[in-house]
Specification:
The chain is of the alpha/beta class. It contains twelve helices and eight strands. The chain has two domains: about 160 residues, Rossmann fold (3-Layer(aba) Sandwich), CATH 3.40.50.720; about 90 residues, Orthogonal Bundle (ProC C-terminal domain-like fold), CATH 1.10.3730.10. Bound molecules: NADP nicotinamide-adenine-dinucleotide phosphate.
């Protein structure tokens, strides 16, 4: 049996991506094989998505179009032997944070590598994926990879040197946004709103703000000026936000994740 897409490591990110691909019908379940060491996890994949599963990473590495390597960076050395017999036309996509193309190409010489940094909104086709092409990737392989990630959101091709920054901002970003949303919802509850209402108000306010920025092409600073009337409620709220140093805290958050991505790359 041959599979078009092989996935090595069926964890959180792999699941988000495969869920999006299946709902977009880019692949049928029968065209995907996921390899994973744990039997319970393999059973979960089989039951939930109907894809083929294997305990052997070699089975995923035998896919004819794309092999997705979705293990943790620390686990990379465990999976390289499986990739040694990769088919010449197959492109290997690494989502490993911080692991350089040079490291990947050295670990598996002969393979056509691409580094991809998607984020978890790919599971609802609202992700953004940055791609950095390795030296051996041909045009057909680029199209396969672009098509795969375009099915689940936006795609940007970037120089490899940007990828740790992309990881820190967009890869980890959904977790920061979720934490901020929790704070806003709790704020609504603090001032007396029922939690379901506070949640609805928060989610739609954030979604609406993003839509406004994207559709009007204005900067966040311009949007803030539109809302902030002299002596008003927004000005009072923003004074508190600025006094707490929220902007600096967010910058440090991205910086800390960037440094972690660099450190993980060095230990892989
Ligand atoms: N989560 C994100 O939002 C995100 C975003 C962008 C990129 N990434 C990247 O995606 C990769 C995976 O992250 P994740 O969050 O999905 O982590 P994860 O949930 O831990 O997924 C990795 C999976 O690989 C499995 N695994 C361990 N050793 C293996 C082996 N030898 N062969 C095959 N599978 C093996 C793990 O099994 P066990 O559960 O048994 O350990 C785990 O289920 C990382 O390199 C990360 O940098 C993640």
């Amino acid at each position: 049996m041959t599979y078009r897409l092989g996935v090595i490591g069926g964890g959180v990110l792999a699941e988000a991506l495969v869920k999006g691909l299946l709902s977009e019908h880019l692949y049928a379940p029968a065209e995907i094989l996921v390899s994973h060491p744990r039997p319970d996890r393999r059973q979960y994949w089989q039951d939930t998505y109907g894809v083929a599963v294997s305990s052997e990473n070699r089975a995923a590495a035998a896919a004819t179009e794309v092999v997705l390597v979705a293990v943790k960076p620390q686990q990379f050395s465990q999976v390289t032997p499986a990739l040694s017999q990769i088919h010449p036309q197959t492109v290997v996509v690494s989502v490993l944070a911080g692991v350089a193309l040079a490291t990947l190409e050295q670990a598996v010489p002969g393979a056509a590598w691409v580094r991809a940094m998607p984020n978890t909104p790919v599971q609802v086709r609202a992700g953004i994926t940055a791609l950095a092409w390795g030296s051996r990737v041909n045009e057909m392989q680029k199209q396969w990879v672009e098509r795969l990630f375009l099915a689940v959101g936006q795609v940007v091709a970037v120089p490899e040197s940007y990828l740790n920054g992309v990881t820190a901002l967009a890869g980890s970003g959904p977790a920061y946004v979720a934490a901020l949303l929790e704070g806003l919802i709790d704020g609504g509850v603090l001032v007396g709103l029922p939690r379901p209402l506070a949640t609805q108000l928060t989610l739609q306010t954030v979604a609406g703000t993003v839509a406004l920025l994207q559709q009007q092409g204005i900067t966040p600073a311009e949007l803030k000026a539109q809302v902030m009337s002299p002596g008003g409620t927004t000005a009072a709220g923003l004074l508190s936000l600025e006094t707490q140093g929220v902007r600096g805290w967010l910058m440090q958050t991205v910086q800390a994740a960037y440094q972690r991505a660099q450190a993980l790359g060095q230990t892989a």
